[in-house]
Every structure is written in structure tokens, then in C-alpha cells.
From TrEMBL, chain A:
Belongs to the ABC transporter superfamily. Pfam families: ABC_tran (PF00005), TOBE_2 (PF08402). It comes from the Bacteria. Residues 10-240 form the ABC transporter domain. It is found in: Cell inner membrane. One of its GO terms (molecular function) is ATP hydrolysis activity. This is ABC transporter ATP-binding protein. NCBIfam families: PRK11650.1. It comes from Sinorhizobium saheli. It is a peripheral membrane protein. Keywords: ATP-binding, Nucleotide-binding, Transport. Its main location: membrane.
TrEMBL record, chain B:
Keywords: Cell inner membrane, Cell membrane, Membrane, Transmembrane, Transmembrane helix, Transport. Residues 80-273 form the ABC transmembrane type-1 domain. It comes from Sinorhizobium saheli. The chain crosses the membrane at residues 21-42, 84-103, 115-142, 148-171, 192-217, 249-273. This is sn-glycerol-3-phosphate transport system permease protein UgpE. One of its GO terms (cellular component) is plasma membrane. It holds the Pfam family BPD_transp_1. The complex is composed of two ATP-binding proteins (UgpC), two transmembrane proteins (UgpA and UgpE) and a solute-binding protein (UgpB).
């Protein structure tokens, strides 16, 4: 690929970060294509924010390099990287009007006055904050403040937008509408955006590419569909999806069959390295289990309690050998605690994992 | 029979009367000394020895007291100038040093940061009278004895521990993200400090300024010891000279006039900065 580098927006190459002897980011390699919306997800403390801040230039890179649009920016000042960042706490300048907040970066860059006015007007029109330009941040609501923070990023016309959990401080309803707003913005502006969140819904709905991080390592990077339907390991399978995927202890019987509880079922995996009697894990998402007539391939379970959510119900059950599972039930009769029922697990929905978390294919 | 509405209105009226009555009474006790002072400074010479109550001039207004005050030392204008020079210089230097030091202590990581900070704070416990002799010797060696600049440096030194502490707290209260946002916007170093952070720590600066000004303006002992020539006296030192009187006779009128002259700048500075000052004291109290 001779010209393949031209549409690469951000390239991380062996990026590491240590605080003293403690390494928190262990060599990240990642390529982000121009115009992609990339979401970093992971449990708290996984290093997703640190990684974003390293791209922004707010944290020093211990080792490795970061390139933005083919330019090595590893040791450049944040303002010279062609990035703009939106913070969780908005981080507006409280002593300046909204207009000055938007214009501050351009003033620092000694942009021509007429140009500043034009860009501020454009950005405020896109975000529908034109009527707020003369107010102070203290006089705005949370959603308006977040718009101003995004506006401050837009006026810089950056190559890459960085979002650090921008919606976490908003209430649930506003979060949904701002999420849609951000998606619209991405479509209109077409810039590369990198977005950090711990909210799966945000990740799944916004991302072109999800990067799942754990303990400073990339566990999997791929489209939302990839990470949801084809997780590379147990961590990703368990982390993406709510309620999380059920993992059931199973026994390898050889020749593509396993036993779970009392049920015996087919496992379409390559059994090399497995001996009959070996333990493995069967992963099934709650929505993929359906109530069915009892049979040899069926898992039978007893309902412990059920949650009614209107459109759907979650049944918390225990199977014969004592393992717990969660089942999502969209239709059919109501089940009460103590009821026994059987589940079918469609063969193409079964995911298998080794005891160490590796996916078995 | 009265309706509940009337009863409530009556109760509210009495509450208001009590509230304002107590407020006015308290204010009276705070304001009375100022009133007495200002009134009696306008008594003519013949009146100045009469009893303080009633305080107002009985035989007509006059500026005798102020004229008398002007005959002491090098004239009140000169001493006012001395005091203002020292006080304003102290404020400016204290603010400049404590803002930089407070910022450093708040934001940078360096070896022995906390030890150093505690050490600076600990100097608050040393009564400055006990180090006056060494200070005198040091200033003499530097050729700064009997100079206003020397006195100013001493005041700044004494003022810094509290000021650095205050400014560190002020900077600690500024969220780190604001600074980071400014760095992304391209504000660096001094620009970052002046354009973004300074307005946010204004309450701290106001507090530091008020304290520095009042302490420098009212300080007597160091000024008495370090200043030797009449022309360099600051107002507090001048006032003792006035009060000491001539041949044992004290010109009370001149004393009152001197006090009045001294009070005005303090009131002015406080009223100018009080809006920020109150916020400074409250900073960090809640959330």
C-alpha cells in the first residue's frame, strides 16, 4: 500500500506510559483512519483517558510515538498538534463570555479578527448557541455548557477531535440528545473523532470503531458489530453487552460436543489441544436464549427472580449444576421465582472460551 | 377576632423591627469610634482639650488640627507619601512573589515540596520582634538601613508565608482541566497565568493585597527601629512623634487629625477589594 498512509489520521506506535516504575500503558499500536469515529471503552483505570490525554499532549509519552496526519507529534505542544479536546467537566473559562470562550484559542493563535468572528458565528450556528454568546458559563445549563465546550473545539478546525467522557455530567435524557448531536456533528464535519467513555450505549451507537482496553492494553479493536458478535476473548465478550454475556462451565466430550450441566450440545470449534474431560466455557448472550421444550440439547434452569422492564424481561436463573445465568425474554408467558424452564441455545450463537479467556474457534 | 393573615402580618412586622433594630444598634457600636474621630478632628484649637463627649465641634468647624499636624516632621504630605510608597510597594511585591510561589506549589511536582511548604508556613510562628536585630544588621550590610526600600523588603518578607499559603489554596481551587483546555488553546507559561488563571484567583489576590496593605500601612515597630531620619518616617511613626507632644503637652487635635488621615486609605482599599475578599475567605468552604 504505497498511498495507504495518506488517509491515516492518527497512528500510535508502541506507545507506553509509566509513572516511575509503574507502567500503565503497555505498548499500544493503533491506526485510526481519516474521518473515523473511534471510541475507547474499558473499565475504570484501564488507561483509556490516559491514552487520550497522551494523544492530546497533556500527558508525556514515555516510549513510542504518536503521529497525526503523518506528522510526528510525540513531543509537540498540545496547541501544535492539530487537535481539540472536550472535557468531561466542560472546562470553560468562567470569567469570559461564551464568545470569548470560543475565540480564545484563535486569539492565542493571532488569528485575524474578522476570521475569528466568522468562525465563532459558524460554530455557534452549528451548535445553536448563537443567542448565548454574551452570557457567562455560570449562567448556562449543563447541556448548553457542553455545547460551548464542543464549539470551542470546532472553531479550532482541528484534524482530530478528542472527547473525554463528554456526556457523563449530563442527565439521562440530555445525554441521549447530545449523543445524537455529536453523531450529527461527526457526519457534518467529517473529522476524525476519538471518544472516551465507559458507557456502552454511547460506544456502540457512535463508533465506527471500538477499541476495548484493559489494564493499558488493547483487548480488541473493531466495528461495534465485530466486538459484539465476534469477541476475541472473554473480557471483551463480557464487557460489551448489557446484561453481560453468560459464561457457563462446560466439559469437552471430544468430537465437537460439550456437556453443560446435564445438556449435551454441539460445539463448532476446532478441538485440537483439547482432550475429553477438559474444561472450557460456553458464552451465550441473554437475548440469544429462548424458552423451548425440554430435550437433550436444552439447558434446564430454575427462575430465581425476574425483572420486568416493559419491553423486555430479565430472568435470573440457576441451572442444574448451580451456575447462574441471565435470560432476556421478550415475549411469552411470565415466569415466577421457582418455575422450571428449558432453554435452547442456537448453534451459531454459541461462543467458546478456554479457561484462560482465549476465544476457541 | 383577627384573621390569621393579620396575625402573620403583625408577627412579620415585629420580626422586621427586631432584626433591623439589632442591626442598627450593632452598627452604631462599630461606627461610633470613627464618627468621634472624624468629628473631633474638626474642632478648633481652643476646643481640642475639652471632654470627648459630645464629640462634634462646639465653637465652629476648623481645620486647625490638620494645620497643626502638618507642622510635625517633614509635613503630612511627605509622610503620607512615605507610607503609600512602602505599602503599595509591599502589596505589589507580595502579590508578584506569592502568585508565582503559590502557582508553583499548587501545580508542579518537585523534591521536598511539602517539607518546603511547611517550612515556609512554620515561619509564621516566629515573632518578628525576635529577628529584628539580625534584620537590622542585614539591612545595614546591604546599605538599606534608613531606607523605605529596605523597610518594604522587610514587610514583604513578613507577609509572604501567609500570602503563599493563601495563593496556593487559591490555585488549588482552580480545576486542572481549565488549565489543560488553555494549553490546548495555545496559552503557555506567562500568558496562561495572566490571561486564564489570574482572573480565577482574583479573590486570593484581593485577600493577599488587603492584608499586605493593612499590615504595611499600620506597622509601627519595624519602621521605628529601621528608619532613623525624620523625613523617612511612615505615618505610624509620625503619630508617636505627634502624640509625644511638645514639653509634655499633647496636641489632641493633631492626634485625631492624624488618625483620620491614616484611616481613610485603609477604608478605601478595603471597600475597593471587599467583594473579592469575601469570596476569598469563603473559597473552598463548600465544595
Amino acid at each position: 500500500m504505497a498511498n495507504g498512509t495518506s488517509n491515516r489520521s492518527v497512528v500510535l506506535n508502541g506507545v507506553r506510559k509509566s509513572y516511575g516504575a509503574l507502567e500503565v500503558i503497555h505498548g499500544i499500536d493503533l491506526t485510526i483512519e481519516e474521518g473515523d469515529f473511534v471510541v475507547f471503552v474499558g473499565p475504570s483505570g484501564c488507561g483509556k483517558s490516559t491514552l487520550l490525554r497522551m494523544i492530546a499532549g497533556l500527558e508525556e509519552v514515555t516510549d513510542g510515538e504518536i503521529a497525526i496526519k503523518g506528522r510526528d507529534v510525540t513531543d509537540l505542544d498540545p496547541s501544535e498538534r492539530g487537535i481539540a479536546m472536550v472535557f468531561q467537566s466542560y472546562a470553560l473559562y468562567p470569567h469570559m463570555s461564551v464568545r470569548d470562550n470560543l475565540a480564545f484559542g484563535l486569539k492565542m493563535a493571532r488569528t485575524d479578527k474578522a476570521d475569528i468572528d466568522k468562525r465563532v458565528a459558524q460554530a455557534s450556528a452549528i451548535l445553536k448557541i448563537d443567542h448565548l454568546l454574551d452570557r457567562r458559563p455560570g449562567q448556562l445549563s449543563g447541556g448548553q455548557r457542553q455545547r460551548v465546550a464542543i464549539g470551542r473545539a470546532i472553531v479550532r478546525k482541528p484534524d482530530v477531535f478528542l472527547f473525554d467522557e463528554p456526556l457523563s455530567n449530563l442527565d439521562a435524557e440530555l445525554r441521549v440528545s447530545m449523543r445524537i448531536e455529536i453523531a450529527r456533528l461527526h457526519r457534518e464535519l467529517g473529522n476524525t473523532m476519538i471518544y472516551v467513555t465507559h458507557d456502552q450505549t454511547e460506544a456502540m451507537t457512535l463508533a465506527d470503531k471500538i477499541v476495548v482496553l484493559r489494564d493499558g492494553r488493547i483487548e480488541q479493536a473493531g466495528s461495534p458489530r465485530d466486538v459484539y458478535e465476534d469477541p476475541e476473548n472473554m473480557f471483551v465478550a463480557g464487557f460489551i453487552g448489557s446484561p453481560r454475556m453468560n459464561f457457563l462451565e462446560a466439559e469437552w466430550l471430544g468430537e465437537g460436543t460439550i456437556r453443560v450441566g446435564k445438556a449435551t450440545m454441539r460445539a463448532a470449534i476446532d478441538g485440537t489441544g483439547l482432550a475429553p474431560g477438559d474444561r472450557l466455557l460456553l458464552g451465550i448472550r441473554p437475548e440469544h436464549m429462548t424458552a423451548a421444550e425440554p430435550g437433550p440439547e436444552r439447558i434446564t434452569a430454575e427462575v430465581e427472580f425476574s425483572e420486568y422492564l416493559g419491553g423486555t424481561r430479565y430472568l435470573y436463573c440457576q441451572i442444574e449444576d448451580g451456575q447462574s445465568i441471565v435470560v432476556e425474554q421478550r415475549e411469552g408467558r411470565d415466569w415466577k421465582a421457582g418455575d422450571k424452564l428449558s432453554f435452547a441455545v442456537p448453534e451459531d450463537r454459541r461462543r467458546f472460551f478456554a479457561k484462560d479467556g482465549r476465544r476457541l474457534r | 377576632m383577627r384573621t390569621r393573615r393579620e396575625i402573620r402580618a403583625r408577627k412579620a412586622l415585629w420580626d422586621r423591627i427586631a432584626y433591623h433594630g439589632i442591626g442598627i444598634g450593632t452598627a452604631f457600636f462599630f461606627l461610633a469610634p470613627f464618627a468621634v474621630m472624624f468629628f473631633s478632628s474638626f474642632r478648633p484649637n481652643s476646643d481640642s482639650g475639652s471632654p470627648p463627649i459630645p464629640p462634634w465641634p462646639r465653637s465652629g468647624m476648623s481645620f486647625d488640627a490638620y494645620r497643626a499636624l502638618d507642622t510635625f516632621g517633614a509635613g503630612i504630605g511627605q509622610h503620607m507619601f512615605n507610607s503609600l510608597t512602602v505599602s503599595i510597594g509591599t502589596v505589589l511585591l507580595t502579590v508578584a512573589v506569592s502568585v508565582l510561589a503559590g502557582y508553583g506549589f499548587s501545580r508542579y511536582r518537585f523534591a521536598f515540596k511539602n517539607v518546603l511548604f511547611v517550612l515556609i508556613i512554620a515561619t509564621l510562628m516566629i515573632p518578628f520582634q525576635s529577628i529584628l536585630t539580625p534584620l537590622f544588621i542585614i539591612l545595614a550590610r546591604l546599605g538599606l538601613n534608613n531606607s523605605l526600600v529596605g523597610l518594604m523588603l522587610v514587610y514583604v518578607t513578613l507577609q509572604l508565608p501567609f500570602s503563599v499559603f493563601m495563593m496556593r489554596n487559591a490555585f488549588d481551587a482552580v480545576p486542572k482541566e481549565i488549565e489543560e483546555a488553555a494549553r490546548i488553546d495555545g496559552a503557555r507559561d506567562l500568558k496562561l497565568l495572566v490571561r486564564v488563571l489570574l482572573p480565577l484567583v482574583m479573590p486570593g489576590i484581593a485577600t493577599v493585597s488587603i492584608f499586605a496593605f493593612l499590615n504595611a500601612w499600620n506597622e509601627f515597630f519595624a519602621a521605628l527601629v529601621l528608619l532613623s531620619s525624620n523625613d523617612n518616617y511612615t505615618l505610624p511613626v509620625l503619630m508617636t512623634a505627634v502624640r509625644a507632644g511638645r514639653l509634655g503637652a499633647i496636641n489632641w487635635g493633631a492626634v485625631q487629625a492624624g488618625v483620620a488621615v491614616m484611616v481613610v486609605p485603609c477604608l478605601f482599599v478595603f471597600l475597593l477589594l471587599q467583594r473579592y475578599y469575601m469570596r476569598g475567605l469563603m473559597a473552598g468552604a463548600v465544595k
